[in-house]
């Protein structure tokens, strides 16, 4: 990711329709945009890989392939060794792409068809598929993508890697694994979440001279929450602030033997700025809780105690975070029912989400933080289906359960019913136990300090990943959830990246 990217993201149909309209309004021919796109990629190649002498350009028969023909012609004119492989029948090319093809041939270029051209290349340009792909690759096209991936050299994707869904980030069977993707006019939302993160490499952007006008006239389908925007969300404190102003949070969870999860949540709630934090857990965890973090207050409740006792415990809080290590025992179920009966804002995670899936409820003042497996349980579907279209999944979760939904994973998505945000932070080192428990606490701490659940979810999700990026600066391997805790109080610094 890059701080230089626009924060507005779009669906492919928005870009396709919008660029035609904006180009017409500005008096720009579509073929001119194709030439600009090809030049942008070629300039990127020269900038990133200045020693490139031999280049393989893989073209389809659409406009994406037309961009490829422009790139190949420019490489020829720069005295590079150019092999252009047409994955589709070159006679099927039409429109602006045909014009680009003809110019390439007129410049002395040769079109290779059929079998993948063996050879040693300094660079591969992927210009096979554009944004229109909507089914799994098969046959010759599948073999083509596999052959491209087998080459041991850098690969640059034109607009998006072939085989990737521009709208969802779904991989249609297989996709080109690019080192760099240069996207045009409007950034496609599918590039930034889920499995797409494994295929795009560094994402770059070029508006082709119409990007500003496009952004001014086409509403974004989602936004990329980046460093500068996240810094603006950070809660500010008056000089006269005391702990009562920063909220009282009750973190609920930790059935017997599972105390670590809720202790992490409690610590993260404190570290993210909440004024007072209590942890309601199994009594056996209290010594470890207080030894680990004496600033936390300990609460416990036994099944044989009355609901009135439990309700009095909850009455202290103005924010509840529930789920980490909670389990699904009768003790857990009673805690969950009592928490839901409270009117204060909630952050719901882990086993609390699984209990919610058993007995669905809708409310406006909670934040749900499922990973794909928990989301699948909430929607009575499979994890595969959730990951196939994370945007639709997060919208359906909100439709059924309300509030704000934070769908975790690579490119975490936050949806509040009107605005979709993708978190532009985080790293693979976060794939370790306890990270979600820390996120629960961070978001709960933000809710305690901020009036907006949506802003709390967005800032909390960003802060969590931001801290992980700081912690991983010397390496991602072995990153653990508690490494984030001392970093959660750091102000968002725009010079981190």
TrEMBL record:
Keywords: ATP-binding, Isomerase, Lyase, Metal-binding, Multifunctional enzyme, NAD, NADP, Nucleotide-binding, Potassium. AMP binds at residues 408-412, 436. The gene is nnr. (6S)-NADPHX binds at residues 63-67, 130-136, 141, 159, 261, 325, 371, 437. Its cofactor is Mg(2+); K(+). Bifunctional enzyme that catalyzes the epimerization of the S- and R-forms of NAD(P)HX and the dehydration of the S-form of NAD(P)HX at the expense of ADP, which is converted to AMP. This allows the repair of both epimers of NAD(P)HX, a damaged form of NAD(P)H that is a result of enzymatic or heat-dependent hydration. Catalyzes the epimerization of the S- and R-forms of NAD(P)HX, a damaged form of NAD(P)H that is a result of enzymatic or heat-dependent hydration. This is a prerequisite for the S-specific NAD(P)H-hydrate dehydratase to allow the repair of both epimers of NAD(P)HX. NCBIfam families: yjeF_cterm (TIGR00196), yjeF_nterm (TIGR00197). Its EC number is 4.2.1.136, 5.1.99.6. Binds 1 potassium ion per subunit. Pfam families: Carb_kinase, YjeF_N. This is Bifunctional NAD(P)H-hydrate repair enzyme. It catalyses: (6R)-NADHX = (6S)-NADHX; (6S)-NADHX + ADP = AMP + phosphate + NADH + H(+); (6R)-NADPHX = (6S)-NADPHX; (6S)-NADPHX + ADP = AMP + phosphate + NADPH + H(+). InterPro entries: Carbohydrate_kinase_pred_CS (IPR017953), CARKD (IPR000631), Nnr (IPR030677), Ribokinase-like (IPR029056), YjeF_N_dom (IPR004443), YjeF_N_dom_sf (IPR036652). K(+) binds at residues 64, 126, 162. In the N-terminal section; belongs to the NnrE/AIBP family. It comes from Grimontia marina. Homotetramer. GO terms for biological process: metabolite repair; nicotinamide nucleotide metabolic process. It comes from the Bacteria. One of its GO terms (molecular function) is ATP binding. Residues 15-216 form the YjeF N-terminal domain. Residues 226-495 form the YjeF C-terminal domain.
């Amino acid at each position: 990711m890059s701080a230089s990217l626009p924060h507005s993201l779009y669906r492919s149909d928005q870009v396709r329709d919008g660029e035609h309209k904006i180009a017409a309004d500005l008096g720009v021919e579509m073929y001119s945009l194709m030439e600009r796109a090809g030049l942008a990629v070629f300039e990127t190649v020269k900038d990133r890989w200045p020693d490139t002498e031999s280049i393989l350009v893989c073209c389809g028969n659409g406009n994406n392939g037309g961009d490829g023909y422009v790139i190949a012609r420019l490489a020829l004119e720069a005295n590079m060794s150019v092999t252009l492989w047409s994955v589709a029948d070159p006679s099927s090319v039409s429109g602006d792409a045909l014009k680009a093809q003809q110019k390439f041939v007129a410049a002395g270029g040769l079109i290779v068809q059929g079998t993948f051209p063996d050879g040693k290349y300094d660079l591969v340009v992927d210009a096979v598929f554009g944004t229109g792909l909507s089914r799994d690759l098969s046959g010759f096209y599948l073999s083509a993508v596999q052959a491209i991936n087998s080459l041991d050299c850098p690969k640059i994707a034109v607009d998006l890697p072939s085989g990737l869904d521009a709208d969802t980030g779904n991989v249609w069977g297989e996709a080109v694994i690019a080192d760099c993707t240069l996207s045009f006019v409007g950034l496609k939302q599918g590039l930034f979440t889920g499995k797409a993160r494994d295929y795009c490499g560094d994402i770059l952007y070029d508006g082709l001279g119409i990007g500003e006008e496009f952004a001014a006239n086409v509403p974004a389908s989602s936004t990329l929450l980046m460093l500068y925007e996240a810094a603006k969300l950070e809660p500010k404190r008056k000089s006269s602030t005391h702990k009562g102003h920063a909220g009282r949070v009750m973190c609920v969870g930790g059935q017997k033997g599972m105390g670590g999860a809720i202790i992490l949540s409690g610590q993260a709630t404190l570290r993210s700025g909440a004024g007072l934090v209590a942890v309601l857990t199994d009594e056996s965890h209290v010594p470890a809780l207080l030894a680990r973090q004496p600033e936390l207050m300990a609460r416990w409740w036994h099944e044989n105690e009355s609901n009135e006792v439990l309700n009095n415990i909850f009455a202290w809080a103005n924010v509840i975070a529930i789920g980490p290590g909670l389990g699904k025992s009768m003790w857990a179920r009673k805690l969950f029912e009592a928490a839901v009966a409270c009117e204060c804002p909630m952050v719901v995670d882990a086993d609390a989400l699984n209990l919610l899936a058993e007995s669905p409820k809708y409310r406006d003042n909670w934040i749900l933080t499922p990973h794909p497996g928990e989301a699948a349980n909430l929607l009575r579907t499979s994890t595969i289906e959730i990951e196939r279209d994370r945007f639709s999944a997060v919208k359906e979760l909100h439709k059924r359960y309300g509030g704000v939904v934070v769908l975790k994973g690579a490119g975490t998505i936050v949806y509040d019913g009107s605005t979709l945000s993708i978190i532009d932070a985080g790293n693979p080192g976060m794939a370790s136990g306890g990270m979600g428990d820390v996120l629960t606490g961070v978001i709960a701490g933000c809710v305690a300090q901020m009036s907006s659940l949506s802003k709390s979810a967005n800032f909390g999700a960003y802060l969590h990943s931001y801290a992980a990026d700081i912690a991983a600066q010397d390496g991602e391997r072995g990153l653990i959830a508690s490494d984030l805790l001392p970093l959660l109080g750091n102000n968002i610094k725009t010079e981190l990246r």
